[in-house]
Write a structure and sequence with these properties.
It is built from three helices and eight strands. It is an alpha+beta fold and 122 residues long. The strands form two sheets. Strands 4, 5, 6, 7 and 8 form a five-stranded antiparallel β-sheet that branches. It has a three-stranded antiparallel β-sheet with strand order 1-3-2, with helices on one face. Strand 2 (43-49) and strand 3 (54-59) form a beta hairpin. 25% of the residues are buried.
């Protein structure tokens, strides 16, 4: 869980400083989160090198503005928040860890699965 917390913290700080890219230690969960961020258009692209254990995200800006204003962490090292399908709010972009992998709220609803809520991106 600490890997996820560090990932989102570093990503939010990179957007605040308007950096063009940000590098992370490679992990499978970081790669899956990067895939979800790419699908939603929050990042332009990502590259990874398994041998060097590096994941590089190229950040996407819209008219010079960050698409991410705030990342709210729901589950942390000391607490886990689980949602069923009926618990999902209608607004916001959520990333969940489910039995079917890391999914966005939209994909979780399509696959009819709940899971551990990692974060909300505003």
């Amino acid at each position: 869980m600490l890997t996820i917390t560090n990932f989102f913290s570093k990503l939010q700080n990179a957007y605040k400083r308007k950096k063009p890219f940000v590098a992370f230690p490679y992990s499978n969960i970081s790669l899956e989160i990067a895939k979800q961020l790419k699908k939603e258009g929050f990042i332009r692209r990502f590259d990874f090198n398994v041998e060097k254990r590096i994941l590089l995200l190229v950040l996407q800006y819209r008219n010079g503005l960050s698409p991410i204003q705030k990342i709210q962490l729901y589950s942390t090292c000391s607490r886990s928040i689980f949602w069923q399908l009926s618990d999902f709010p209608l607004n916001g972009f959520y990333i969940l860890s489910t039995s079917k992998g890391i999914l966005s709220r939209h994909e979780a609803l399509k696959q009819q699965t709940g899971g551990k809520v990692l974060c909300r991106i505003i």
